[in-house]
DNA sequence: CGGATTTAACTTTTT
DNA sequence: GTTAAATCCG
């Protein structure tokens, strides 16, 4: 029987969710409770048992990765899924928008702007506006407008309720921004949600088409939906109410992006006759890990009470790693990784290191590289956001969508071809006076006022080149257009002339982009008239690097906590579990406490990625920008009962024995015992602590001394100490900062100058 | 007027 | 350590 095959291996609540036939369904699925399983089995069950055609179902996710995972899992459950729409909110509605673009006065091949593109446009708009707009920061304006869009607030409404002059100004930029986006035949990410609503409101017959097409809508990660998405979905399902949402309020971590946690908390009020199913059995983590996770998240007030349970053994106790600074932390993580791999036959790919900010990846990366451990960083300075990639994509966007003046501005003089700001402003005024786009005016540059013939010639040459590429794009593949572009534009040539290490890196990135274009071109099949290039542009705007993550590759994975959502690893390290980092310092500015609760959920998400081993690591100091930031352990660590965890430390405690706690670097003196071989475990309550008089520590926070084991004959240096240097004479230490396995000292010498010295080489004597 | 060199600000998370 | 704006130079 079909039913049995689809239902076996499901627990009773999962089964209930899968079999539910009609009407609104809320599945509260805790971390690791098998929600993807429920969604895919439900789609298959609807198709095979309730005879719903796959083409009448719409499944929405937040990431391409989640969509891809669902698609691949469905393959074995439902052989024929033709017409089934599975994808991210953004890509599915972009698909609808391309089909219906003309209703909105757009062309089907509109550009999709990322945050950076939007900011460029906003910067330009601010310049064109009166001087009093000059104090607006493009990035904050962009964020503000994005927020207004997500919250469905109109410019008028904002103006009416503006609490400060800045908000009033942003409200004035907003409509101009929308107008220029349209002039550029471009939409930003938020428009991909907002415009379908406009479309449906203005053209009920179009809404009716999609309403009747999709008889069942399923949404993953419902806690991440914003108001706009809620309204959009609501418009689609209002008649039949066959909406199934899966989510977990404890994993809502995108509030800053406009996600409205109320959507999931109030689902039962928003729809009538809601069936609610709770999935509380966790199939991922050991008991101890779940207990730690619960200890953390249960401190939140705005949550639906629940507790995950597991049939798995309690497992190893999670470990708290304490380090002097981020280099030490990275070193500890590397050593623990190696030890675990050796002792528990774990592969590199089963280990993940998670952190709050991308900036933290550098120290970790260096440590893994030095240890010759393969690693892979997900996210970070994202591939598609690198300058050279964005430049080339801007070219391609112009070729696919010549009205995209914003992209044209970006590349008109990249590489430099003698078209500077003055020429550009002359061309722009000609375009404005004729009411044509910048691209079209390029061909008539010779008619621009005050433009010397020689320069006009360059402009026309540039236009001719783009026209050639455009012609090429109509018949040839995206990869062909790209390779020709790289050659004709002189982009590659200008880089190779630089002949620097950095330029080589950029060339490698370009080669990677060509590879991606080839890969796309090979799988491209023409549909509804789009060219290969147009289709590729549509896709690249909506993919992220994590989508290309190959789980087969035997590498340690490094990524942000946000990126880790939806993933799982046998061994998880959370690096930087410090106050001011997790939770991030800005969370304290929010007086409602909502931001702090979101930080706690983020930490919870990180913890629940772990299947067997969990390490929570914090460092007493951390290099940030050019100075050193000192902090104590995250307050979230204090929520964890001491008996659930172990501690490994390389901190030195004032008042503790002078014997340092087994910390050293490779090449240093002494060695750290491998884990499992009776590691030094330090319980703070058993350690005699002496409070520093300068900076009283909060209760329960260990006060570390920034000092490492220097060996017998190499004393540690302290700020304020008087020292003597062989050549420079005597002076005072004004700054001490750890650098690799040494200390970097700033010494102000009595002769008046300050010098930075490495402790190891300076050979300083005490005065 | 355009190109090159120097300076400054920057980092929370992302479709 | 990175990129865009500011300043300088040809």
Q: What do you see in this structure?
A:
The chain has 30 helices and 23 strands. The strands form 5 sheets. Strands 9, 10, 11, 12, 13, 14, 15 and 16 form an 8-stranded mixed β-sheet that branches. A 6-stranded parallel β-sheet has the order 3-2-6-7-1-8, with helices on both faces. Strands 22-21-20-19-23 form a 5-stranded antiparallel β-sheet. The protein binds a DNA duplex (15 and 10 nucleotides) through residues 62-64, 88-91, 114-115, 189-190, 192-193, 253-254, 256-257, 356-359, 362, 379, 381-382, 387, 413, 416, 418-423, 455, 541-544, 560-563, 581, 584-587, 602, 624-625.
The average pLDDT value, as a whole number, equals 83
Number of DSSP strand runs: 23
Largest sheet: 8 strands, mixed
Oligomer: single chain
Beta-strand fraction estimate: 15-25%
Low-pLDDT stretches:
654-715
The coarse silhouette is globular
Q: Please report the number of helical segments.
A: 30
Distance between the termini: 88 Å
Helix content: 40-55%
Q: Any idea what the radius of gyration is?
A: 29 Å
Structural class: alpha/beta
Search tags:
767 residues; alpha/beta; eight-stranded mixed beta sheet; six-stranded parallel beta sheet; 30 helices; 23 strands; DNA-binding
């Amino acid at each position: 029987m079909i039913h049995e095959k689809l239902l076996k291996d499901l627990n009773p609540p999962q089964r209930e969710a899968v079999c539910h036939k009609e009407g609104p369904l809320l599945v509260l699925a805790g971390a690791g409770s098998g929600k993807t399983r429920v969604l895919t089995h439900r789609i298959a069950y609807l198709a095979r048992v309730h005879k719903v055609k796959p083409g009448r179902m719409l499944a929405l996710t937040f990431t391409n990765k989640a969509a891809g995972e669902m698609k691949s899992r469905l393959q074995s459950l439902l052989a024929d899924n033709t017409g089934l729409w599975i994808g991210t909110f953004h890509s599915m509605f972009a698909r609808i928008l391309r089909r219906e673009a003309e209703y909105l006065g757009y062309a089907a091949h509109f550009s999709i702007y990322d945050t950076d593109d939007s900011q460029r446009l906003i910067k330009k708009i601010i310049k064109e506006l009166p001087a009093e707009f000059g104090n607006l920061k493009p990035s904050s304006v962009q964020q503000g407008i994005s927020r207004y869009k997500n919250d469905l607030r109109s410019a008028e409404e904002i103006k009416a309720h503006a609490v400060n002059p800045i908000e009033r100004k942003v409200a004035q930029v907003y409509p101009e921004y929308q107008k220029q986006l349209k002039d550029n035949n471009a939409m930003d990410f938020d428009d991909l949600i907002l415009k379908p609503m406009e479309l449906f409101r203005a053209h009920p017959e179009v809404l009716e088409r999609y309403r009747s097409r999709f008889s069942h809508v399923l949404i993953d990660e419902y806690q991440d939906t914003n108001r706009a998405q809620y309204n959009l979905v609501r418009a689609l399902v209002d008649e039949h109410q066959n909406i199934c949402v899966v989510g977990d309020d404890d994993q809502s971590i995108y509030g800053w992006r406009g996600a409205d946690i109320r959507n999931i908390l109030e689902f039962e009020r928003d729809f009538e006759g809601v069936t609610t199913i709770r999935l509380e059995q966790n199939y991922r983590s050991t008991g101890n890990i779940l207990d730690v996770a619960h200890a953390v998240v249960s401190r939140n007030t705005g949550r639906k009470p629940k507790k995950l349970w597991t049939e798995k053994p309690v497992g190893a106790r999670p470990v708290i790693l304490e380090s002097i600074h981020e280099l030490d932390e990275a070193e500890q993580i590397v050593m623990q990784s190696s030890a675990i791999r050796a002792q528990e036959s774990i592969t590199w790919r089963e280990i993940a290191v998670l952190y709050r900010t991308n900036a933290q990846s550098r120290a970790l990366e260096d440590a893994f590289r030095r240890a010759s451990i393969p690693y892979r960083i997900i996210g970070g300075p994202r591939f598609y956001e690198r300058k050279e990639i964005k430049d080339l994509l801007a070219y391609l966007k112009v070729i696919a969508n010549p009205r995209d003046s914003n992209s044209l501005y970006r590349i008109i003089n990249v590489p430099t071809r003698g078209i500077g700001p003055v020429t550009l402003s002359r061309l722009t005024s000609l375009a404005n006076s004729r009411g044509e786009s910048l691209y079209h005016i390029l061909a008539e540059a010779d008619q621009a006022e005050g433009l010397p013939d020689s320069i006009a010639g360059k402009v026309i040459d540039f236009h001719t080149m783009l026209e050639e590429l455009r012609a090429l794009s109509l018949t040839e593949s995206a990869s062909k257009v790209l390779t020709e572009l790289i050659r004709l534009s002189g982009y590659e040539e200008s880089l190779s002339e630089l002949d620097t290490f950095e330029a080589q890196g950029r060339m490698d990135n370009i080669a990677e982009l060509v590879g991606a274009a080839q890969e796309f071109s090979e799988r491209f099949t023409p549909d509804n008239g789009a060219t290969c290039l147009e289709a590729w542009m549509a896709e690249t705007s909506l993919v992220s690097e994590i989508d290309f993550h190959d789980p087969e590759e035997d590498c340690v994975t490094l990524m942000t906590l946000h990126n880790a959502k939806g993933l799982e690893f046998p061994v998880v390290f959370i690096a930087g579990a410090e106050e001011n980092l997790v939770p991030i310092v800005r969370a304290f500015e929010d007086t409602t406490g909502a931001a702090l609760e979101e930080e706690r959920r983020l930490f919870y998400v990180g913890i629940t990625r772990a299947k067997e081993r969990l390490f929570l690591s914090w460092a007493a100091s951390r290099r940030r920008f050019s100075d050193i930031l000192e902090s104590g352990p995250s307050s979230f660590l204090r929520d964890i009962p001491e008996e659930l965890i172990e501690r490994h430390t390389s901190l030195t405690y004032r008042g503790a024995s002078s014997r340092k706690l087994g910390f050293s670097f490779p090449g240093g003196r002494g060695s750290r015992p491998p884990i499992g071989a009776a590691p030094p475990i330090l319980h703070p309550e058993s350690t005699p602590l002496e409070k520093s008089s300068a900076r009283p520590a909060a209760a329960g926070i260990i006060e570390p001394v920034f000092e490492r084991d220097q060996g017998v004959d190499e004393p540690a240096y302290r700020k304020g100490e008087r020292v003597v240097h062989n050549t420079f004479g005597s002076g005072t230490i004004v700054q001490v900062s750890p650098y690799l396995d040494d200390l970097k000292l700033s010494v102000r010498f009595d002769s008046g100058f300050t010098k930075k010295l490495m402790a190891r080489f300076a050979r300083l004597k005490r005065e």
